[in-house]
Amino acid sequence: SSAQRKQRFADIQRRPPHACPEPEVTQLLLDMSIRWSSTYKKINDFPLSLAMADMSLKYVDTFVYELGLHQRTQEKCDQMIQMELTANECKCVGLFASLLAHADNAQQNFSSDASPSLHLALPALEALHKAWDSCSIQSKYMIFSTGLNAAVNKIVEYYGCTADLDAYTLAMLLDPSFKDAHFKKYWGAELHADANQHAEEIRCHLDMYGKDGDIASPKKKVSKISKLLRELSSDEGEDDEEDEIDNQSPWLKEFNLYLNSGHSCPPGMSIIQWWGINAQLYPVWASLAHDHLSIMTSSVSSERAFSYLNTITKCHNLLKGDIVEAIQVLCMLYNCDLMFREPGPSSASELGFEDSHEPGAEAGTQATENLDWILDLFDDSDEE
Q1: Distance between CA atoms of 84 and 244, rounded to whole angstroms?
Q2: Do residues 182 and 123 touch, judged by C-beta distance below 8 A?
Q3: What's the mean pLDDT in 176-197?
Q4: pLDDT over 60 (residue 155)
Q5: What residue spans define the domains of the chain?
Q6: Exposure of 272 by Cβ count < 10 A (0-12 exposed, 13-18 middle, 19+ buried)?
Q7: For residue 342, what pLDDT band results from cuts at 50, 70 and 90?
Q8: Residue range 70-119, pLDDT digits in tens
Q9: Dihedral, CA of residue 203, residue 205, residue 208 and residue 214, to nearest 10
Q10: Which residue has the higher pLDDT, 363 or 177?
Q11: Contacts with 281 (C-beta within 8 Å, 6 or more apart), sequence order
Q12: Phi, psi of 123 (to 5 degrees)
């Protein structure tokens, strides 16, 4: 049984002459057939730490050997003993863990249950693609070349799917600390211009402000003194420039003003808090932030949270997305101490407090209480 195997492995580590101190006694992780994140957790926490030390490797070999001795048939015994790790296999496990570490870093980078993380999705995919693509041509990873090539192609497929959605690029632009810096640095001038132009053509801008900005904003009135000053001006070109600026879409001015600003998100302040403070300064961008920052990057922020706690059983495939999201919300509320809080002071609560302390209300309450015993008497008489 699983309990007997755990006890056997702990006893092996306590045996003399190479007894392991009690605080350093490790234990086997529960073997579950789930995804790569749990595989990385298992081989990173247990086999690597044991295989890198000769004494720890002996613990594993002894454990596998004794399991083979307790098999019912000689054939099963031989099969079990052949599972002892060799030095070359330990090296392969270490290389495999280093490959999975890139995926784990990418997933943890854009996984969050308390703040927006959609703006980190594309950079994480690009970094993972670059890491695995470079590993696929290295000689030490040649044994994993087939799997690496398939993984790189899968990332390209996922990355291509993001081109059909505006949310990914908009979420990156909505990060006040970076804005379009990632596009400038990694995408090149042409793709950078395409990303900004595509953001300008988003349908919500046209729906809110009209095709040319004429619906939402009235025309600017020119005062009489301005007309007189124009007549005094001898430069006719200035009039044309001013007319061109006045006729420019008002949301486009704000659009470029935000991208060219030097604003950034202070340490300790979330993107949502920043947009809540600067919503009046950039109302168009704030409306986009309201619509896009709430989009989840992944339905499961981290599989590690479930696999490490052994909450996924043999029926793990029946764990639907809505259940996972509900569990995430509960975990976030619990970790952030947001559960079972009393409502804060508001105008409604103040009115209720005032009504409860009015003299007439108290008299009415006392009168009602005085009538309650009469009703009780009637109820008792009916029962008799």
Answers
A1: 78
A2: yes
A3: 90
A4: yes
A5: 1-85, 181-235+246-292, 353-383
A6: middle
A7: low
A8: 888 999 999 888 888 787 887 888 899 899 999 988 888 877 767 888 89
A9: -120
A10: 177
A11: none
A12: -60, -35
Joined tokens for residue 263: 């604003």
Alpha helices, DSSP H, located in 215-267: 224-232, 236-247, 250-259
Q: Which two tokens stand for residue 329?
A: 């919300």
SS3 sequence, 265-305? Answer: CCCCCCHHHHHHHCCCCCHHHHHHHHHHCCCCCCCCCCCHH
CA dihedral 345, 350, 352, 355 (to 10 degrees): 160
pTM of the model: 0.63
CA torsion 323→327→333→336, rounded to 10°?
A: -140
Distance CA 136, CA 42 (A): 23
Q: Which two tokens stand for residue 315?
A: 């029926």
- Note whether 285 and 254 are within 8 A (CB): yes
State the residue for tokens 């920043």: 274
Tokens standing for 293?
A: 């920052």
Q: Kindly report the length of the chain.
A: 384
pLDDT in tens, 264-276: 889 888 898 999 9
In one-letter notation, the amino acid at residue 178 is F
C-alpha 1/C-alpha 312 separation (Å) is 19
